[in-house]
Design a protein that fits this description.
- This protein has one domain: 2-enoyl-CoA Hydratase, Chain A, domain 1, CATH 3.90.226.
- It has 11 helices and 9 strands.
- By secondary structure, the chain is an alpha/beta fold.
- The two termini are 26 Å apart.
- The radius of gyration is 18 Å and the shape is globular.
- The strands form 2 sheets. It has a 6-stranded mixed β-sheet with strand order 1-2-3-4-6-9, sandwiched between helices. A 3-stranded mixed β-sheet has the order 5-7-8.
- This is 3,2-trans-enoyl-CoA isomerase.
- Keywords: Isomerase.
Length: 275
């Protein structure tokens, strides 16, 4: 897992966490999301680092949850609708992971090489700074309505605050992909690197590392952290409330069996995935 599916590296005063499952478009199963959370905890406590870079590999940043590896087919009927199972494997994990990204002490940078979907998109939206390799090849998709789910990862707040009510409604209510050009115009993206014409994602990731390292050179580190806390104070209450409301509402969707039936329909191609 660590060192294979998700890489962890400390370079100078940065931590770099890399999703490294390009053959599966960096879609993550439950164990991999759990590992990501553990690595975020580790990065939060690294001494002498200022920035955590959340990056990826291949052509997608992340296709969200890996449905094939969710293990639903291995559950018996009782487990499929079991309160205890979904409290542990959905409510607790999603609440914890969202909180880790929201409360990360270091400057949290997303280096986005391609489309990002679902819970992974929610985690990117919680980052402080978002840099995109090529906004013409990038989109954000929250397919919750498509999957019979509800908003996750505090997207009911973060997308509203970062995109505005109208565009957030398109994204969340109708599971509509929001193209990179629109995201840039709305201020979701800090900078796109279209003109660099990178041949590989690795080249892009290296450029982000160099740029970020230069950004905080000669700055007072404690002032950076204190300023982040002041900025966060304006959003944390709303995110805490959204995180709680989302997971409880989503929990009852799992208990009702709605996502489970939608996954079957998607697998049988009775309905189309918005991806």
């Amino acid at each position: 897992m660590e060192g294979e599916d998700i890489l962890y590296e400390v370079r100078d005063r940065t931590v770099i966490i890399t999703l490294n499952i390009p053959k599966k478009l960096n879609a993550l199963n439950g164990d991999q999301y759990l590992l990501l959370g553990k690595l975020m905890e580790r990065a939060n406590e690294e001494e002498d680092t200022v920035v955590t870079i959340f990056q990826s590999s291949g052509r997608y940043f992340s296709a969200g949850a890996n449905f094939a590896d969710k293990g639903l087919a291995k559950l018996d009927v009782a487990e499929l609708f079991d309160h205890k199972y979904w409290l542990g494997n959905f409510v607790a994990r999603n609440t914890w992971l969202t909180s880790l990204f929201q409360n990360h002490k270091k400057v949290l940078v997303a280096a986005v090489n391609g489309p990002v979907i679902g819970l992974s998109a929610a985690l990117v939206a919680l980052c402080d700074l978002i840099y995109v390799m090529d906004d013409t090849k990038f989109h954000l998709l929250c397919p919750f309505s498509n999957l019979g789910l509800v908003a996750e990862g505090a997207t009911s707040v973060t997308l509203f605050k970062r995109l505005g009510w109208s565009k957030a409604s398109e994204a969340i209510l109708f599971s509509r992909p929001i193209p990179g050009k629109e995201l840039k115009a709305l201020g979701f993206i800090n900078q796109s690197y279209n003109d660099y014409n990178f041949k590989t994602t690795e080249e892009f990731n290296e450029q982000i590392y160099k740029d970020v390292l230069g950004d905080f050179q000669d700055l007072h580190e404690d002032s950076i952290f204190k300023n982040k806390q002041l900025l966060k104070a304006n959003r944390d209450g709303a995110i805490d409330a959204a995180n709680s409301n989302e997971v409880v509402t989503g929990f009852y969707k799992w208990i009702e069996g709605v996502p489970q039936s939608r996954f079957v329909q998607l697998a049988q191609k009775d309905i189309k995935h918005k991806m």
